[in-house]
């Protein structure tokens, strides 16, 4: 009886050790499976993720470049708006400059202005002629300034002649007076002879 019990205990002991041994192997296999699985996922994941990471990096760089370019455009746009605003403020003055010294002789327009001014002051124009345009212009500040003479002979009362002369100098077209003479005429009228010089530039 004792011998049989002893044999049974030995059998149970062997089965117990065998069970523990088998479970240990199973755990090792399980751990190795997990390790190899993680290694495989990491290895293949790098190949799959690397292009994505490169794309993200490139997009980030393009975004930075785009933001820089946008900022530059905003700065230029602000400068253009400021220049446009400043130009609008000085545009009337620029137009006055071009009227004072036009880019062509505009002789007919000047003659009409002088005739209108004479009529306004009740002067009778005896003669109104222009001289030849000088072939060799004066150069000032890098600009070639052409000119021609304007010869005016008119008759009227003395006060009207004086006002006419002052207004002639102050019209929107620049005219410099080179010679001015006056004297008495018939019927208590005065005569005046004015030689002026008008200017223009060429574009």
The radius of gyration computed from the alpha-carbon positions, rounded to a whole number of angstroms, is 52 Å
User: What's the count of strands?
Assistant: 5
Pattern of helices and strands: HHEEEHEE
Strand content: 15-25%
Structural class, by secondary structure, is: alpha+beta
Shape: rod-shaped
Helix content: 55-70%
* End-to-end Cα distance: 135 Å
Largest sheet: 5 strands, antiparallel
Low-pLDDT runs of 5+ residues are none
What number of structural domains do the residues give? 2
Helical element count? 3
Give the integer mean of the pLDDT values.
Answer: 77
Structure commentary:
With about 200 residues, the chain is of the alpha+beta class. It is rod-shaped. It has 3 helices and 5 strands, in the order ααβββαββ. Strands 1, 2, 3, 4 and 5 form a 5-stranded antiparallel beta sheet that branches. It has helices at about 1-100, 105-120, 160-170, and strands spanning about 125-130, 140, 145-155, 175-185, 190-200.
Characteristics:
3 helices; 2 domains; alpha+beta; five-stranded antiparallel sheet; Alpha-Beta Plaits; 62% helix; 203 residues
Task: Write a concise synopsis of the structure shown.
The chain has helices at residues 2-100, 107-120, 158-169, and strands at residues 124-130, 138-140, 143-156, 175-184, 190-201.
Give a topology summary:
Elements: H1 2-100, H2 107-120, E1 124-130, E2 138-140, E3 143-156, H3 158-169, E4 175-184, E5 190-201
Antiparallel strand pairs: 1-3, 2-3, 3-5, 4-5
